Amino acid sequence: QVQLVESGGGLVQAGGSLRLSCGASGSILTIGAMGWYRQAPGKQRELVATITRGGTNYADSVKGRFTISRANAKNTLYLQMNSLKPEDTAVYYCNCEVVTTAPFKSLEVWGQGTLVTVSS
Hints:
Strand content: over 45%
Structural class: mainly beta
Number of strands: 11
């Protein structure tokens, strides 16, 4: 089994910053693409940012404000969020593609989510 645990969410005023972390643990052989998604109340889950060996990708709404990074040695994913806006309020989910140790399964894993609330 593989687990993802997010942390770092909370309440912040507009214009402020937060840093989200996501730690992966369990029967991990390799981790491929990793990403952050978010779901605001009453809306569908949407892509925020992804990171692969080829580079990074951001939603237009967060470009220039958010930065995704990863620490491969720690199996950890980060999202630095600056210049936060009320419309960034959502539950943020971590996602990754994992190949497990024997029997070498390919899995897509989601974290439980962490709530980010931006007040105006």
